[in-house]
Protein backbone atom coordinates (compact mmCIF):
# COMPACT_ATOMS: atom_id res chain seq x y z
CA UNK A 1 0.00 0.00 0.00
CA UNK A 2 1.04 3.58 -0.72
CA UNK A 3 -0.18 6.85 0.73
CA UNK A 4 -0.66 10.19 -1.02
CA UNK A 5 -0.85 13.50 0.86
CA UNK A 6 -2.32 16.77 -0.41
CA UNK A 7 -2.50 20.24 1.15
CA UNK A 8 -5.90 21.95 1.13
CA UNK A 9 -5.35 25.66 1.78
CA UNK A 10 -7.03 28.76 0.39
CA UNK A 11 -8.94 31.92 1.33
CA UNK A 12 -12.19 29.89 1.42
CA UNK A 13 -13.15 26.22 1.51
CA UNK A 14 -16.55 24.52 1.71
CA UNK A 15 -17.05 20.83 2.39
CA UNK A 16 -20.76 20.12 2.37
CA UNK A 17 -22.06 16.69 3.33
CA UNK A 18 -25.85 16.72 3.19
CA UNK A 19 -27.10 20.31 2.78
CA UNK A 20 -29.17 21.21 -0.27
CA UNK A 21 -31.33 23.98 -1.73
CA UNK A 22 -31.19 27.44 -0.09
CA UNK A 23 -28.81 26.58 2.78
CA UNK A 24 -25.38 25.09 1.97
CA UNK A 25 -23.40 24.21 5.09
CA UNK A 26 -19.77 23.19 5.43
CA UNK A 27 -18.24 20.52 7.64
CA UNK A 28 -15.33 21.46 9.92
CA UNK A 29 -12.87 19.54 7.75
CA UNK A 30 -12.75 18.14 4.19
CA UNK A 31 -15.12 15.25 3.48
CA UNK A 32 -14.08 12.02 1.81
CA UNK A 33 -16.62 12.59 -0.96
CA UNK A 34 -15.26 16.11 -1.54
CA UNK A 35 -11.62 15.01 -1.77
CA UNK A 36 -12.45 12.01 -3.98
CA UNK A 37 -14.39 14.38 -6.22
CA UNK A 38 -11.28 16.54 -6.49
CA UNK A 39 -9.16 13.49 -7.41
CA UNK A 40 -11.78 12.39 -9.96
CA UNK A 41 -11.64 15.85 -11.56
CA UNK A 42 -7.85 15.64 -11.72
CA UNK A 43 -8.17 12.30 -13.53
CA UNK A 44 -10.71 13.71 -15.96
CA UNK A 45 -13.65 11.60 -14.79
CA UNK A 46 -17.16 12.78 -15.61
CA UNK A 47 -19.93 12.85 -13.00
CA UNK A 48 -21.50 9.75 -14.53
CA UNK A 49 -18.25 7.72 -14.58
CA UNK A 50 -17.51 4.76 -12.30
CA UNK A 51 -16.00 5.70 -8.89
CA UNK A 52 -15.41 2.30 -7.24
CA UNK A 53 -11.60 2.52 -7.60
CA UNK A 54 -11.61 5.82 -5.64
CA UNK A 55 -14.28 4.90 -3.09
CA UNK A 56 -12.18 1.92 -1.93
CA UNK A 57 -9.27 4.17 -0.90
CA UNK A 58 -8.66 4.72 2.81
CA UNK A 59 -9.11 8.39 3.68
CA UNK A 60 -7.82 10.66 6.44
CA UNK A 61 -7.39 14.35 7.16
CA UNK A 62 -5.32 16.39 9.64
CA UNK A 63 -6.56 19.77 10.83
CA UNK A 64 -3.48 22.03 10.76
CA UNK A 65 -5.35 25.35 10.91
CA UNK A 66 -9.11 25.09 11.52
CA UNK A 67 -10.05 28.50 10.08
CA UNK A 68 -13.20 30.43 10.94
CA UNK A 69 -16.80 30.07 9.75
CA UNK A 70 -17.91 32.58 7.09
CA UNK A 71 -21.56 33.12 6.04
CA UNK A 72 -22.41 34.42 2.58
CA UNK A 73 -25.95 35.70 2.00
CA UNK A 74 -26.92 35.53 -1.68
CA UNK A 75 -29.68 37.25 -3.63
CA UNK A 76 -30.19 36.43 -7.32
CA UNK A 77 -32.51 37.67 -10.10
CA UNK A 78 -32.83 36.80 -13.77
CA UNK A 79 -31.02 38.99 -16.31
CA UNK A 80 -34.26 40.70 -17.33
CA UNK A 81 -35.15 41.34 -13.66
CA UNK A 82 -38.53 39.63 -14.00
CA UNK A 83 -37.72 36.55 -11.90
CA UNK A 84 -36.38 36.45 -8.34
CA UNK A 85 -34.70 33.30 -7.13
CA UNK A 86 -34.90 32.03 -3.51
CA UNK A 87 -32.63 33.73 -0.98
CA UNK A 88 -29.81 31.46 0.07
CA UNK A 89 -27.11 31.14 2.71
CA UNK A 90 -23.77 29.56 1.97
CA UNK A 91 -21.18 28.76 4.63
CA UNK A 92 -17.42 28.57 4.14
CA UNK A 93 -14.25 27.96 6.14
CA UNK A 94 -12.00 31.02 5.93
CA UNK A 95 -8.16 30.72 6.16
CA UNK A 96 -8.21 27.00 6.94
CA UNK A 97 -5.35 24.60 6.20
CA UNK A 98 -5.66 20.80 6.06
CA UNK A 99 -3.42 17.90 5.13
CA UNK A 100 -5.59 15.17 3.60
CA UNK A 101 -4.54 11.79 2.30
CA UNK A 102 -5.60 8.53 0.71
CA UNK A 103 -4.06 5.06 0.87
CA UNK A 104 -4.33 2.34 -1.73
CA UNK A 105 -2.56 0.22 -4.34
CA UNK A 106 0.71 1.77 -5.54
CA UNK A 107 -0.31 1.90 -9.21
CA UNK A 108 -3.48 3.86 -8.40
CA UNK A 109 -1.68 6.25 -6.05
CA UNK A 110 0.98 6.95 -8.68
CA UNK A 111 -1.75 7.60 -11.27
CA UNK A 112 -3.45 10.06 -8.90
CA UNK A 113 -0.13 11.76 -8.18
CA UNK A 114 0.47 12.26 -11.91
CA UNK A 115 -3.08 13.56 -12.38
CA UNK A 116 -2.65 16.16 -9.61
CA UNK A 117 0.49 17.47 -11.34
CA UNK A 118 -1.40 17.85 -14.63
CA UNK A 119 -5.14 17.87 -13.85
CA UNK A 120 -7.73 17.50 -16.62
CA UNK A 121 -10.35 19.76 -15.00
CA UNK A 122 -9.87 22.80 -12.70
CA UNK A 123 -9.48 21.80 -9.04
CA UNK A 124 -11.21 23.59 -6.19
CA UNK A 125 -11.71 23.21 -2.44
CA UNK A 126 -15.29 21.95 -2.27
CA UNK A 127 -16.93 24.66 -4.46
CA UNK A 128 -15.95 26.30 -7.73
CA UNK A 129 -15.54 29.65 -5.94
CA UNK A 130 -12.79 28.19 -3.70
CA UNK A 131 -9.49 27.80 -5.61
CA UNK A 132 -6.44 26.45 -3.73
CA UNK A 133 -3.61 28.82 -2.80
CA UNK A 134 -0.82 26.28 -3.37
CA UNK A 135 -0.13 23.21 -5.49
CA UNK A 136 -2.13 20.38 -3.93
CA UNK A 137 0.31 17.48 -4.11
CA UNK A 138 2.67 17.15 -1.13
CA UNK A 139 4.14 13.65 -1.39
CA UNK A 140 3.61 9.93 -1.87
CA UNK A 141 4.99 7.45 0.63
CA UNK A 142 5.26 3.73 1.29
CA UNK A 143 4.24 4.41 4.90
CA UNK A 144 0.66 3.89 6.02
CA UNK A 145 -1.71 6.83 5.72
CA UNK A 146 -1.74 7.35 9.49
CA UNK A 147 2.07 7.32 9.70
CA UNK A 148 2.30 9.72 6.75
CA UNK A 149 -0.09 12.16 8.40
CA UNK A 150 1.77 11.97 11.70
CA UNK A 151 5.22 12.45 10.15
CA UNK A 152 4.47 15.28 7.73
CA UNK A 153 5.40 18.75 9.08
CA UNK A 154 2.70 21.08 10.43
CA UNK A 155 1.42 23.35 7.59
CA UNK A 156 -0.19 26.21 9.54
CA UNK A 157 0.67 29.82 8.61
CA UNK A 158 3.21 31.69 10.70
CA UNK A 159 0.64 34.25 11.89
CA UNK A 160 -1.55 31.42 13.17
CA UNK A 161 1.34 29.65 14.93
CA UNK A 162 2.23 32.85 16.79
CA UNK A 163 -1.22 32.84 18.44
CA UNK A 164 -1.04 29.21 19.57
CA UNK A 165 0.49 27.60 22.67
CA UNK A 166 4.10 26.30 22.67
CA UNK A 167 2.68 22.80 22.23
CA UNK A 168 -0.32 22.18 19.96
CA UNK A 169 -2.62 19.16 19.56
CA UNK A 170 -3.69 18.54 15.94
CA UNK A 171 -6.86 16.57 15.23
CA UNK A 172 -6.68 13.64 12.79
CA UNK A 173 -9.88 12.07 11.41
CA UNK A 174 -9.37 8.65 9.79
CA UNK A 175 -11.52 5.99 8.17
CA UNK A 176 -12.24 3.41 10.88
CA UNK A 177 -11.56 -0.28 10.37
CA UNK A 178 -14.40 -2.82 10.54
CA UNK A 179 -15.56 -3.30 14.13
CA UNK A 180 -13.97 -0.06 15.39
CA UNK A 181 -16.27 2.40 17.16
CA UNK A 182 -16.52 5.92 15.77
CA UNK A 183 -18.85 8.48 14.25
CA UNK A 184 -20.96 7.27 11.33
CA UNK A 185 -21.22 9.66 8.35
CA UNK A 186 -22.82 9.14 4.94
CA UNK A 187 -19.81 10.28 2.97
CA UNK A 188 -18.59 7.54 0.58
CA UNK A 189 -19.57 8.47 -2.98
CA UNK A 190 -21.18 5.77 -5.08
CA UNK A 191 -22.25 8.12 -7.87
CA UNK A 192 -21.83 11.86 -8.53
CA UNK A 193 -24.44 11.70 -11.29
CA UNK A 194 -26.71 14.77 -10.66
CA UNK A 195 -29.75 12.68 -11.58
CA UNK A 196 -29.24 10.23 -8.73
CA UNK A 197 -26.36 11.04 -6.39
CA UNK A 198 -25.67 8.20 -3.98
CA UNK A 199 -23.46 7.89 -0.90
CA UNK A 200 -22.69 5.09 1.55
CA UNK A 201 -21.77 5.22 5.24
CA UNK A 202 -18.29 5.18 6.73
CA UNK A 203 -16.89 5.21 10.24
CA UNK A 204 -14.67 8.13 11.30
CA UNK A 205 -12.19 7.73 14.16
CA UNK A 206 -10.69 10.82 15.84
CA UNK A 207 -7.07 10.91 17.02
CA UNK A 208 -4.66 13.60 18.24
CA UNK A 209 -0.98 14.34 17.63
CA UNK A 210 1.13 16.88 19.50
CA UNK A 211 3.56 19.23 17.72
CA UNK A 212 6.07 21.68 19.17
CA UNK A 213 5.45 25.33 18.28
CA UNK A 214 8.61 27.46 18.60
CA UNK A 215 6.76 30.36 16.89
CA UNK A 216 4.36 30.75 19.82
CA UNK A 217 4.20 34.19 21.42
CA UNK A 218 2.32 32.82 24.41
CA UNK A 219 4.68 32.54 27.35
CA UNK A 220 2.46 31.08 30.02
CA UNK A 221 -0.57 32.30 31.96
CA UNK A 222 0.16 34.87 34.70
CA UNK A 223 -3.13 36.25 36.14
CA UNK A 224 -1.26 38.64 38.48
CA UNK A 225 0.58 40.22 35.54
CA UNK A 226 -2.78 40.67 33.78
CA UNK A 227 -4.00 42.63 36.82
CA UNK A 228 -0.87 44.82 36.83
CA UNK A 229 0.99 42.93 39.57
CA UNK A 230 4.50 41.45 39.48
Q: Helicity range of the residues?
A: 10-25%
* Helical run tally: 6
Radius of gyration: 20 Å
Structural class: alpha+beta
Overall 3D form: globular
Mean pLDDT: 92
* Low-confidence runs of at least 5 consecutive residues: none
Oligomer: single chain
DSSP E strands, number: 9
Largest sheet: 9 strands, mixed
Measured by DSSP, the beta-strand proportion falls in 35-45%
Distance between the termini: 57 Å
Written as H for each helix and E for each strand, in order along the chain, the element string is: EEHHEEEHEHHEEEH
Task: Give an overview in words.
By secondary structure, this protein is an alpha+beta fold. The protein has six helices and nine strands; from the N terminus they run ββααβββαβααβββα. Strands 1, 2, 3, 4, 5, 6, 7, 8 and 9 form a nine-stranded mixed β-sheet that branches. Strand 8 and strand 9 (198-212) form a beta hairpin. The longest helix has 12 residues, at 32-43. The termini are far apart.
What does the secondary structure layout of this molecule look like, with pairings?
Blueprint: E1 2-13, E2 23-24, H1 32-43, H2 52-55, E3 58-65, E4 68-74, E5 88-104, H3 106-117, E6 137-141, H4 145-151, H5 158-162, E7 167-175, E8 183-191, E9 198-212, H6 223-226
Parallel strand pairs: 2-5
Antiparallel strand pairs: 1-5, 1-6, 3-5, 3-7, 4-5, 7-9, 8-9
Amino acid sequence: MTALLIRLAGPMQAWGASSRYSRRDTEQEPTKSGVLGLLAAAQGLRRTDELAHLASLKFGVRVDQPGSLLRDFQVARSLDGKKTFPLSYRYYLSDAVFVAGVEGESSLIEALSSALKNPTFPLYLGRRSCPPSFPLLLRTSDESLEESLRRFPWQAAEWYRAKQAPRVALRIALDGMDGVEGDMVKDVPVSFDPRHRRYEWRTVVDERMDVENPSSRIRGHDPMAALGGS
